[in-house]
Amino acid sequence: MSRRLIISTLLVMLLPAVLMAHGVSESDQEILSNGGLLAYILVGAKHMVTGYDHLLFLTGVIFYLNNFKDIVRFITVFTIGHCITLIGATYLGIKVDEHLIDAVIALSVLYKGFENLGGFQKWFKTESPNLLWMVFIFGLIHGFGLSTRLQSFDMGEGMFLAKILCFNIGVELGQITALIPIVFLITQWKKLKSYQLFYQIVNWFLVVAGIALFIYQIYGYISHM
Prior knowledge:
This protein has 225 residues and is mostly helical. The chain has a domain at 52-152 and 178-223. It has helices at residues 3-18, 26-34, 37-49, 52-64, 68-92, 98-116, 119-124, 131-151, 160-189, 195-223.
C-alpha cells in the first residue's frame, strides 16, 4: 500500500471523531447548579479533555518542538494567552458568537498542520511567522472560545470571579492530563523509522480537520442567523 493511500485512508477514518467536538451539555449545567466551586474545576477539566480543537492545535505545536524545555515554554505561552481572554472576557461579559470563534480556532488547527508540512516555504517561498508569538495569539483566540462556553452556562449569583478562576484551573488541569499522553506518544515515535509517515499523517489530518471544522462552524453560524 502506498504512503499516499495510507494517509488518505486514515484521514477518512479519523475525521468523523473531530466533528463530534465538545459543547455545552445539560449534564454539565446540572453539575454546576448542584455543586460548588469544585464543580467548576471538574467541568473546566472535562471541557479541555474533550476539546478536540484545542488539543489538535497543541498537538501540531508539539510536533514542531525538539525538547521538553521548549514544550513547557510554548505550552506556558499558550496557557497565558487563553487565561487572559478566558478570565477577562468572562468577567467583563464580552461575548463572541460561538460558531465564529470556533471557526477561527479551526483555522488555527489548519494553520499548524500547514506550517508543519512546510506550507509557507512551498507555497509562499518564505519562512513561517515566529511560532512563539503565533502560539500566544492563538492562545488568546482559544481563550475566547473557552469564555464563550463558560458564559453559555447559568453561573447563578455570587462568587462570580471565583467560579471563573475555578473553571480556568480545571481547564489547565484538563490540558495537562490530555497533553501527557500526546507528548509521550510523539516523543517516543520520534525514535521509530515510521516517524516520518506518522508525522505526515497527523499533520495532513490537522489540515483536513481544520478545513472540515471551519466549514462545519460557518454552516452552523449561517443556519442560526
